[in-house]
Specification:
about 45% helix; eight-stranded mixed β-sheet; single chain; alpha+beta
Length: about 260
Amino acid sequence: MRLETYEARTGDVSAARWQARVDLAAAHRLAVMHGLNEGIFNHLTFRVPGSDSYYQIPFGLHWSEVTASCFMEVGYDGKLRAGQGEIEQSCYCIHAPMHRLLSHAAAVFHTHMPFASALTRLEDPQILPIGQTELGTAIHTAYDDCYDGPAFDPAEGERLAGAIGDKTVLMMANHGVATVGKTVADAYDRLYYVERVAQVQLYAMWTGRPLKHLPQRVIDETVAEFRGGRTYGGKKPATWHFEALKRILDRKEPDYKN
């Protein structure tokens, strides 16, 4: 049964919850479009509005198949609250603690996207001050230098929540990347630009020529501008970006809303 039909019959699911499902489905489809997914693994989740649970896709579903109605609701205790399917354990162990412990982590996105993950394999994975987009991303980025294997205990998610703190990007050593946000748009925008930054930095490094670091004055002025949180028409650039990306999906893959 489509969830919107269920909502109309029972009133149990709010419009905000349905919109969250639509946006999260869009994020999965867009991640495939942008090459950010890794098979059937990695996880994009969102806190169920007004609840102590989060949306997670059933294990085994490819991200190109995700629709708004397919999500399970998983409690912070790991129990299935709604929907059907297998709960992927590492998703629960990473995401539930981060949703629970971080007020700004309504969305928690974790991927092994190639360029950013390549940076995490370096002894020094830091995003370098060699360009404007790099500066805008670096100020929101934390680094975790510990990898102890797959996350099959919620204690690992608690540790990662501590590692990211009040930042919105976590570079996970020898592993991948996590981004968090108050909206799906915020988390996806971070994910998209972390991968772009990593790609450009690696391309520059691969030339073997000296990198041109920005002068400190330019760094300080640019960072101050980014921290100002400029909006357009009352909306953040991340919101504009995600709305534009959803319009592409509306033309190419409109079934994500089902």
